Structures are given as structure tokens and as C-alpha cells.
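Sample intake sheet
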Amino acid sequence: MKSIRNHLSLVIALLSILFSIQVFMIVERSIDAYKENLASNYSVVVVSQKKLSDKSFFALNDLIESVSELTPDSVIKKLNSNMEAKNVELLKLALPKFYKLKLKYYPNPQEIKQLKKDLLKQKGITKVEDFSNNHDTTYKLLVLFKNVIFVFSLTVLIVTILLIFKELRIWQFKHNERMSIMGLFGAPIWLRSAVLFRLSIVDAFIASVLAFILFSYIASNAWIAKELENIGISIVMFDPLNDFLLLLGVAMSLSILLASLIVLGHKEEV
């Protein structure tokens, strides 16, 4: 019973690390998908006194993906729907040219400022509407949310590593007498510490399998899929191959590293 309890404490500690790592990856994927969604709906409006070609816009900044000229008809209708046709044509000639720019991705505030500066350098362009207030607020909220999740995950990682280190140290003390006897008979350090490494590897594998089961269930949960659909994003919450191999690699590497540090520390004490 004690052995199971000791295994369980180490497995739970490793599982909490894997959980925090996968949650951070899910949040990062969600933010990237949301930024792509924002980029498809976000555009910059440019006012020019003369007609400009698409090539002239592309030459100004690499961030621009597509250019479309806005027709003045909708603007004129809002001004006066009863205007005579002749006056409408004259007004069309007097109005400046309006262009709608689509961007390759959702930029940060610095990139928006640089884009606006580059556009205003073009002769003929008199105004650039980048909707910077709404853009900056949305971008800062995304960055803040991502940073909060990162700090939370990092805190869980640090605290759990300390718990795992303590648990492995306890196991070392339990097997200290057997390790000392094996040392007297000339057994190498890796053989004396085989139990500790076996514990680390087995528990790391168990924790990875539990993480696989947990996130496979989460990824297939209809409620979560519906919530993501409501905010207009679609992501791979858990890749059964790549994500599992990553989590398994993290669990194994961390367990073996901590066990090695304990073994080296024990060697120094002798």
C-alpha cells in the first residue's frame, strides 16, 4: 500500500506538470487561431487624392496581403439618396479614392504604426484609418491572457519539480542501506541507483499515459468544441501522436534528470 501511495504521489506530480504544459499549448493555439480570425476581419482604410495601383501598396510594406478599392456609391447614398444623377457623377469625380487593405496576419501595435507611417509616405495618400484604439486593446488583452497562463504554468512547474525532487530523495533514503551494501561489493553508481531510475521511468510513463487519456477526452468533449465554435476558432486541442510524444519526452527527461541529480548528490556525500 505504501509503495502504491509513493508511486501515486510522483505520478500526480508529473501529471500536473504535463497538464500545465498542454494547457499552455492549447491556449497558445487558441490565441494564434483567434489572431488569424481577427486578421481576416481586420482591415486598414486608406484615403488617397489619386488612383493608386496594387503594386504601389505592396511596395510600401510587406504586411499588406491584398488591396481593394472601395466604391463611393454607398457613401453618396448615405449623404443624399434623392440627389440627381448628374450631381452624383460630379460628386464621384470630386471624392477621393478609398482603399481597403487586408493584412497577412494580425499585427502588433508597433507594426501597425510602421504600416501607417509607410503608407503616409506615399504621395497622394492623405489619411490612414487603422482603428488603432480597438486594435491595441484587443492585442493587449490577448498578450495579457497568454502571459497569465505562462506565469501560472511556470509556477506549477517549479513547485511540482521541488515536490518530485523531494519524493525521489525519500525513495533514495529508503534504499540507502541496500545501495551502500552494493557499493561495498564494488557495484557501479548506476547499478546501485537502478531502483530510483526505474521508479522515475515507470512513473513518467504512467503519468504520460494518464495525460493522453485525459486530453483525448477533453479534445473529444462536445461542450468544449461548441464553446470554441462560438468564438469562431477551430484548433487541434490534442494531437495523439506529436503532443503525446512531447509530453512523454518531457516527463521522462525531467524524471531522469532529477534522479541523476539526486544520485550525483549522494555520491558527493560519500
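Comment: The mean pLDDT is 79. The chain has two domains: 2-37+137-269, 43-130.
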